[in-house]
Design a protein that fits this description.
single chain; 266 residues; mainly alpha; two-stranded parallel ribbon; 10 helices; globular
Length: 266
């Protein structure tokens, strides 16, 4: 763990990615805020502005930056191995991969928190005069707290979780293809492939996406590809929906472990 933290902090690419993510997110958030309609700021509009959502991208910008950090974490291992050739047993390789996952996940979570803080300031400064955001951006004015149903807290927590998932996906996919660039590209393509597939599987079993998916993840436009307006009345999370959401992640982890069984190096 300590070695992975030193490696992450010691390479210039980490800080370039972090600085780029903060600057680009702040710019997109400020631009989104300037285009908000006059009146009271709605929760979906606030989430899309603070999260710096770009509709043409399959993932939030922060999740893509975290995927780059994850891919570079594995790419740097290939360039500067942390395990000598005499100590690349399966247990040590899996331990190194686990340590990288923990460090990348923590870095992605910290990046998400920093981005949300910077974006909130950028949105506050860029809001037009006719937009009233007092009930959303002023936490003391929230009657039921930011994490109440319909509040801004839940979507932004899901945003941070997506950033962590993006970092892990970038790391694990890069461990499969052994190319940081290919790992980032495949991570970006993954949501566009998995969301419609999971939606079609749910339709085949007579189930739909639950309502909270739209409430917590308003920036996941790929969900609209496989469902109509009637699907939004779906109920609570059940086992089939949970399997549709978690199965791709489980398969990715299993593939990474199986690949390590056949390799002699990380």
């Amino acid at each position: 763990m300590a070695s992975e933290v030193r490696r992450l902090r010691g390479v210039r690419s980490t800080w370039v990615v972090v600085a780029g993510a903060l600057l680009v997110n702040a710019g997109v958030a400020a631009f989104s805020a300037t285009r908000l309609p006059a009146g009271e700021l709605a929760v979906p509009d606030a989430v899309r502005s603070v999260a710096a959502v770009v509709p043409v991208l399959p993932l939030p910008l922060t999740a893509l930056a975290a995927a780059v950090l994850g891919a570079l974490a594995y790419g740097n291992e290939a360039r500067w191995p942390g395990l000598p050739a005499s100590r690349v047993t399966l247990g040590r390789r899996l331990g190194a991969l686990l340590a990288k996952s923990l460090v990348v996940g923590a870095a992605a979570a910290l990046l998400a928190v920093a981005v949300l803080g910077v974006n909130a300031v950028a949105v506050r400064l860029a809001l037009p005069a006719g937009v009233d955001a007092s009930t959303l951006l002023d936490l003391p004015d929230l009657p039921a707290g930011p994490f109440a149903a319909g509040g801004i807290g839940r979507p932004l927590a899901a945003y941070a979780a997506l950033a962590v998932a993006g970092g892990w996906a970038g790391l694990l996919i890069t461990s499969l293809v052994r190319s940081a660039l290919a790992g980032v590209l495949l991570t970006g393509a993954l949501p566009a492939l998995l969301e419609p597939t999971a939606g079609l599987l749910l339709h085949r079993t007579g189930r739909n996406w639950p309502v909270w998916v739209r409430e917590l993840l308003p920036f996941q436009y790929g969900l609209d590809w496989v469902r109509g307006a009637a699907d939004r009345t779906a109920g609570a999370l059940d086992g089939t929906v949970a399997a549709a959401l978690l199965a791709p992640a489980a398969l990715l982890v299993l593939a990474a472990v199986l690949v390590q069984l056949r390799r002699r190096s990380l």
